[in-house]
Amino acid sequence: MNEKILEIDDLTVSFDGFKALNHLNFSLDIGELRVIIGPNGAGKTTFLDIITGKTKPTEGQVRFKGRNLRPYAEHQIAQMGVGRKFQTPRVYLNLTPRENLEIACNRQKTVIHTLFRKTLNAERRTVVGLLETIGLSHKADMKANLLSHGEKQWLEIGMLVAQSPDLLLVDEPVAGLTDEETEKTGELLLSLAESHSIIVIEHDMEFVRQIAKGTVTVLHQGSVLCEGTIDEVQTDPRVVEVYLGQEIHTNGPVNLEDTAELLGVLEGS
Amino acid sequence: MVASILDGIFNGVSIGSILLLAALGLAIVFGLMGVINMAHGELMMLGAYTTFVVQNIFKAIGGPLFEVYIFFALIAAFIVAALVGLLLERGVIRYLYGRPLETLLATWGVSLILQQFVRSVNWVLVFGLLLFCVLYFGGQWVVKRRADFERIKGWSTTLLLFLSGAIALVGGNIVASTYGLAATQPWFGAQNKDVTAPAWLRGGIPIGNYQLPSTRVFIMVLTVLCVLGVYWFLNRTAWGLRIRSVTQNRNMSACLGIPTRTVDALTFALGSGLAGIAGCALSLLGSVGPNTGQNYIVNTFMVVVVGGVGKLVGTIVGAMAIGIADYIVGTGILANLTNIPFLKDFFTFFATTSMAKVMVFALIVVFLQFRPAGMFPQKGRTVDA
Amino acid sequence: MAVDTLVQSRGVDLAKRRSLLIEIAIVAAIALFLIFALPWLISAFRLNLMGRFLALAIVALGIDLIWGFTGLLSLGHGIFFTIGGYALAMHLKLPQPPGSGLPEFMSLYGGTELPWFWRPFYSAPFSLFAIAVIPAVIAGILGYVIFRNRIRGVYFSILTQAATIIFFNFFNGQQKLFNGTNGLTDFRSVFGLPVKDNRTQYILYIVTILFVILAYAVCRWLTSGRFGRLLVAIRDDESRVRFTGYNPTGFKILVFAVSGALAGIAGALYTLQSGIVSPNTMNIAFSIEMVIWVAVGGRATLVGAILGAVLVNLAKSLLSEQFPDFWLFFQGGLFLLVVLLLPSGLIGWLRTSGVDLYKQLTGQTRLSTYPSLEEDPEVEYERKNIGD
After folding, report:
1. Domain range enclosing C242
2. Is residue C92 part of a domain?
3. Does some domain include residue C339?
């Protein structure tokens, strides 16, 4: 299990001199579920932009399954097996959930195939199964813009799975969801983690605690501040400092519970 | 040889500065508000007609005052175009923010209306329009003050529209039959109008054995002044700061108490006013007609595309590059420079005004293959969200 | 449950097949009416106009494909339309058999030799082929250089508009090659039939109707399947499509090319019925006008495109006969009206207000205690499946 699916070496991205990512190093094992946290402006979304090919690195490289991603465009990277869920749910609002999933599910994504080949029964079955999983079976044939926010989030996760990627990049999957929906999303992600490698970016510490069984990475000002289990990270004085903006830890030993609560209060809203 | 190169640069810059003057307002409106204003050319046309009217007034007054009418015309053109722009923003564009393609279509509709308006405007039309506006908006004002406005809104608006329309139509017809030709004669008609430049703009400024036409020098100076003025306004004044802040973050600006609607209106009026000035400058170069604006609109859009919407300097460089390329290709200077028969034929083929445009467009498309967002694009994560 | 949903989707397929049959029947009925009944009702002149409008409806379908479904506002369809017209007109202007002289205008401008690119147009099959293929290739190339760089939105519109001006300049400026401003006119015979004859025009009218049906069928096929849904997806969120693993560029180029080909066919049919093709149809105004036909009818509905093209042009011919001055006012007003008040066009309006109106008229209104529930999709779903 120690083979790496994603390796990032010394990555720097700058926009007009502003370094969104700064000498970042990162790697992910096959089958791992990794949670990335970090304050606003830490470069989390740029990090995903880089992996999916939306932005090209200024320096350094990203290797997915050992291949350098630099020469590939977004759709090629997606075909190689990287799926991405956006911060705000981006589903095709004028299509039905079924159609949304069918588009994502299509194996051969060339013009000719899309135009001439019939939808395979196997694909239909996958779509039906997915509709079931994300709980949208009864709304399968109404336009997606009639779905609630939570349903759209789920639909987008479903689309991601339909792509059958090896690596899932999930950007704030529970933003704006109710507690119950959040919990269900967590379960969904955990069950997906059994067969996929996943990177989750999240603010909600409650949720992070639910899903982070392994390593958590903290980004700050474009580089990795620290990595470790959720408990290690939450007690790390540097993390506390960047989140709270002041050096509490100099006043004495950090109370684990307090910090966790503070982080929860600050970021979980 | 040196003379012909100098000539090329002068003429190129001269064409470029007209383009720049025309594109400046467009770049502001597009760059700051994301609005594609297809009626920009017609605002220029209005500026040119305003110049024509001001010239006629000063001609009637006569005397030495005529020599300086152009300055009054510039101011009048700015004001007229800005007011029409303001009306356009309040009446149409503000409902379409964030929908650039729809804005494009709507402003195209406005440009058609303005063209036909200039062709057929006469006292009857003006009277009818005024009557309609007074009746309709007056009626709206009265109805709005009723307590049950929301309930009767639908049918009362329709009724008012038809009633005031009918009354205006009848009123116009009465005026037309009472005053006859005096009222029905179009003010301008469909023919082109000529503006006479003041005497001091008609000659040329001799440099060596070469003459620089005064009008072109005047336009260059005007362009430089306009660019500096715009730069100063946007970067050094309070309203300029407000405009820039609304561009960056509309909601935040609104929270900070900046009147974003006023800022929108102001920005659009400024861009339109600049179109008026450009129109005034155009009238010095040739006759003006209802279609004058349309001839410029595509070129000015090209300037914005090549320059990129990020910065003012992009518009300047874009305009100059297109102007110079246009002139160099169009006059066949390139054909004279080579001796290879094939190339010579090739360049001669493009050495007319209209064919030069073909070549320049091809060059622009090639350029966009390397810099799809223009010379000075906006950068950052948020651009393509 | 999973199996149920699959069965349900098969049921949807059956329903689809039935509605397809109904659609075919309606199309056939309308076509039969246009072909057999309309000539009795209106004069030959009006019928010829109707034929032209129907030709324009084919471009409208093309515009709808690229704008309504894919979200790319092309202001360059005048190019494809005109070039389609030229492709046919060049064939008609060449004296047969090959080598027996030049088209009149060429000798007028002192030309002695036929330009090389005129030669293939001696062949009728080539010309017919060229009517659709040359515009498609031009559209494809233009699309490739624009879409490749992800130039989109208004930039695409502006560039296509500039291309229109460029082609206009080119055709307008080349007297020796294309007879410049005057264009190509005075066609004597088309495939052995005299062009000006009423009978020929009636045949052309029928051919136009057949092509409208064909174009409708092609567009219907393109937009109804997975391909069509992908076009809508590109329109709604292009970068999402990319992250799903599709390359939108190819799809956009194909759609643009198909839509150019439709415009070319329309141009050729229009040229035959109007008797002239000239660079005038490449001015920027005409290309934007095409867009408004689609907008009036209702974008992203194929019927809307056809309806809009016919209605607006009907209005144009009536109004400009009666009040020539006011056509532009009317047209400008139409742009504003459609954009500001009727964004989904006549068909869209019929779908919303029309249905209500119909229900009111036929007394089908159900007095609802909770009006908001009527619009709730879940309630609707339950009603449909559990019974009211």
Report:
1. 46-292
2. yes
3. no
From chain C, the residues in CB contact with B95 under 8 A are 340
Same domain, residue pair C96 and C157: yes
Residues of chain C with C-beta less than 8 angstroms from the C-beta of A83: 243
Tell me the average pLDDT across C51-69.
95
Contact C237 A92 (CB under 8 A): yes
Burial (CB count <10 Å: 0-12, 13-18, 19+), residue B349: middle
Q: Which chains touch B (3 or more CB pairs under 8 A)?
A: A, C
Residue labelled with tokens 């015979």: C189
- pLDDT, residue B250, reads 82
* CB-CB contact of C204 with C51 (8 Å): yes
Same domain, C30 and C50: no
Please list, in sequence order, all residues whose beta carbon lies within 8 angstroms of the beta carbon of residue A130, skipping any fewer than 6 positions away.
Answer: A101, A105, A158, A161, A162
Q: Provide, as residue numbers in chain C, all residues whose Cβ is less than 8 Å from the Cβ of B102.
A: 339, 343
Q: Is residue C11 part of a domain?
A: yes
Is A269's pLDDT higher than 50? no
Of how many residues is chain B composed? Answer: 385
Measured between CA atoms, how close is B27 to chain C, in angstroms?
13
What are the average pLDDT values for consecutive 10-residue runs of chain B, which has 385 residues?
72 86 89 87 93 90 83 94 94 87 92 90 86 88 80 79 88 84 80 83 76 84 93 90 85 87 91 93 86 84 84 88 86 74 80 83 87 72 40
Residues of C in contact with B355 (CB under 8 A): 169-170, 173
pLDDT at residue number A258? 52
- Is residue A253's pLDDT more than 80? no
Question: Are residues C246 and C152 part of one domain?
Answer: yes
**Count of domains for chain C:** 2
Interface with A, mutate which of B381, B382, B383 (most A CBs under 10 A):
B381
- Residue C235 distance to chain A (closest CA, Å): 9
Average per-residue pLDDT for chain A: 82
Q: What was the pLDDT predicted at A185?
A: 87
pLDDT tens digit string along C73-91? 999 999 999 999 999 999 9
User: Which residue blocks in chain C are alpha helix, DSSP H?
Assistant: 2-32, 38-41, 44-63, 77-93, 104-108, 124-147, 154-173, 175-178, 198-224, 226-236, 238-243, 248-274, 284-297, 302-322, 327-340, 345-349, 355-361, 371-374, 377-386
Q: How confident is the model at residue C373 (pLDDT cuts 50, 70, 90)?
A: low
Contact with chain B for residue A267, Cβ under 8 A: no
C103 and C16 in a common domain: no
Q: Which CATH class is domain B2-121+186-377?
A: mainly alpha
Instruction: Decide if B233 contacts B78 (C-beta within 8 A).
Output: no
Structural domains of chain A in order of their starting residue, each with its CATH number: 4-90+165-267 (3.40.50.300), 92-146 (no CATH)
CB contact under 8 Å between B301 and C291, yes or no, is no
Residue A21 scores a pLDDT above 50: yes
Give residue C374's pLDDT. 52
User: Kind and range of the H or E element at B356?
Assistant: helix B353-370
CA distance C377 to A138: 10
* Displacement of CA C105 from its chain's centroid (Å): 32
Predicted confidence at residue C370, as pLDDT, reads: 52
Q: Which of A90, A93, A114 sits opposite C227 (nearest CB)?
A: A114
In this complex, do A128 and C244 lie within 8 Å of one another by their Cβ atoms? no
Single out the residue in C292, C323, C344 at which a domain terminates: C292
Same domain, C157 and C28: no
8 Å CB contact of C173 and B354 = yes
Residue A179: alpha-carbon gap to chain centroid: 19
- Residue C333 distance to chain A (closest CA, Å): 29
Chains A and B: how many Cβ contacts under 8 Å?
A: 11
pLDDT tens digits, C91-132: 998 887 777 778 888 877 777 788 888 888 888 899 999 999
Contacts of B92 in chain C (CB under 8 A): 336, 340
Determine, yes or no, domain membership for C62.
Answer: yes
